[in-house]
């Protein structure tokens, strides 16, 4: 499940938002999109000519990581090709949303990265949401991508990798187990850009992996990445929670590698637990810990880059010297191939 976070500013209470959405249900006649409950029972999702359920959006009480929140689902119909590959039919689809109070505004969590649905300016679901919140005095709501889950630090993946490599826990005993499947972008003339030569580091990355050393040493753009956290339980065991995290207020939960020891969860409950955990607890924790890490200074980060550059140079020197052609090459070019050239004295 992919999740995108946004910030909603409006004059309505959570109850008023629920009532506004409930007053705009989807209509089968004419296939007019609208709002209903996010319950999966009788949802008829992905059914041809599917009929949405009748249950209205509801406010869920605070529990575990999650605050009190409004749960709703935006239903719409879209055309798709049928099995014959030629004919088309209308199929029922939807996007879920969770809305909760955050610093006198609202945190909005969409179960989608699809800009055609949730773009604040032109997304169908986003525009439907805000259009229902105009008050009698015509105060217009504002939906923004600048959410509390946006990570402003561009070195966050290096910081997380350093935490995992050094086994330094976050607050509450939470540990960064691994950083995996890291995307890297090359540094071109000092500009960090993603190009066709950008890379993807499969598997776990750490401060000893040559491909990661290369990315750090060249100060390439890092991220997104799959992050696995270990969260301690009262009995001394750890839950393992995994998600792919973007800096731009987005994450994708990964249920298969995630293991939750307390309670019995079906797949739907497990997905929802992970969404709550990352959105309301662990991504805010990562943001807060990075922001307050006084030891992670520019000097320390710069020193780490230098260390990785040196380690990378050593690694490639060892590879070169292990090459069967090295003895002949060294004999031809001198034994001090890797020595630093002496500085040329400027003419007086």
Model description:
- Helices cover 28% and strands 28% of the residues.
- The strands form two sheets. Strands 1, 2, 3, 4, 5, 6, 7, 8, 11, 12, 13, 14 and 15 form a 13-stranded antiparallel beta sheet that branches.
- It folds into two domains: 2-144, no CATH class; 156-292, no CATH class.
- It is built from eight helices and 15 strands.
- The protein has 348 residues and is of the alpha+beta class.
- The protein starts with a strand and ends in a 15-residue tail after the last helix.
Shape: elongated
Count helical runs. Answer: 8
What gyration radius follows from the Cα positions, in whole Å? Answer: 26 Å
* Overall structural domain count: 2
Approximately how much helix is present in the residues? 25-40%
Low-pLDDT parts are 186-197
Report the mean per-residue pLDDT as an integer: 86
Separation, N- and C-terminal Cα atoms: 69 Å
Largest sheet: 13 strands, antiparallel
Beta fraction: 25-35%
Strand/helix succession: EHEEEEEHHEHEEEEHEEEEHHH
Number of strands: 15
Which class do the helix and strand fractions yield?
alpha+beta
Short key terms for the protein model shown above:
15 strands; 348 residues; 13-stranded antiparallel β-sheet; two-stranded antiparallel ribbon; alpha+beta; 2 domains
Question: What's the short version?
Answer:
The chain is of the alpha+beta class and 348 residues long. It contains eight helices and 15 strands. It has two domains: 2-144, no CATH class; 156-292, no CATH class.
